[in-house]
Amino acid sequence: MKPRPFLNFVIAALLGGFFMSALAEDRTPPDDVTMHSVQIQIYCVPTMQRMMGLLLEKFSEVPVAMGMLNQNDSWLITTNRDATTSSILIAKRNKEETSVCLVWSGDSQGVPGLTFSLNPSPQFPEPEIEGFGT
Length: 134
Hints:
Helices cover about 25% and strands about 25% of the residues. The protein has about 130 residues and is an alpha+beta fold. The chain has a five-stranded antiparallel β-sheet with strand order 1-5-4-3-2.
């Protein structure tokens, strides 16, 4: 099998981003958290403009949320007006190349609001486990 460095990056970024934000200063996961290597199929293009064009043309999706994984890498969530389709993208930029990859997409088969929704009033509790949180 051909090595897939970008796929390894995507998995590491997603897991790393989760644990970096969830564990803040303590970067050691709890004992019941296990690492799994999985093989997934992703679709990548060389520019954000190209990916946005494809998602707009095929699904009428536009970006609704974004975050930085580090100085060069980011994630985006796109959805259409009725939230019947949505996608998650990872963008990686370095000196040699840029890649924007579709790592997940969903389709609620016409049921509005099921693929993407924001909590209008999030309640942020204090961390219950010592070492978690800010």
